[in-house]
Amino acid sequence: MTSVMVELLEIPKAQQVVITDDALTVDLSDGRTISVPLAWYPRLLHGTPGDRNNWRFIGENEGMHWPELDEDISVKNIILGKPSGESQKSFQRWLDDRANKV
C-alpha cells in the first residue's frame, strides 16, 4: 500500500463550511482548507443562498448534508477532487420538481 493510500484511510474531519456564489470551502481538522468550484455540485449552484446556508455535518463530520437541496457531499470526495456524480437526467428532474414548487 502506498503512503497516499494509507493517508486517505485517515480522512480528516470537516470543521467549518463556507459557501459563496462560486465556491464551497471546507476547513479540515488537519489544518488544511480546501475550496472547490460550486459548479461541481449543481444542486448547490442552483440553490438559493438560504438553501446553501442550511446545512449540517453528517457521519461524525465526514460530510455535509443540505436538506432543502437533497445533497450530501463527503470530505473524502472533496479531497479526491470528485465532483457530483449525479446524472444530467436526474438533475433535470430535480430542477423541474423545484420549479413546480415555486
The CATH architecture comes to 2-Layer Sandwich
| Overall geometry | globular
Question: What is the count of helical runs?
Answer: 5
**Proportion of beta-strand residues:** 25-35%
Going by CATH, the homologous superfamily would be Uncharacterised protein PF10387, DUF2442
- Count the domains: 1
The CA-CA distance between the termini, in Å, is 51 Å
- Which range best describes the helical content: under 10%, 10-25%, 25-40%, 40-55%, 55-70% or over 70%? 25-40%
CATH topology: NE0471 N-terminal domain-like
The largest pleated sheet is described as: 3 strands, antiparallel
How would you characterize the overall build of this protein?
It is a single chain. The protein is of the alpha+beta class. It has one domain: 2-Layer Sandwich (NE0471 N-terminal domain-like). Helices cover 36% and strands 27% of the residues. It is built from five helices and six strands, in the order H-E-E-E-H-H-E-E-E-H-H. The strands form two sheets. It has a three-stranded antiparallel beta sheet. Strand 4 and strand 5 (63-66) form a beta hairpin. It is globular, with a radius of gyration of 14 Å. The termini are far apart. The mean pLDDT is 91.
Describe the structure using short key phrases.
single chain; 102 residues; alpha+beta; NE0471 N-terminal domain-like; 3-stranded antiparallel beta sheet; globular
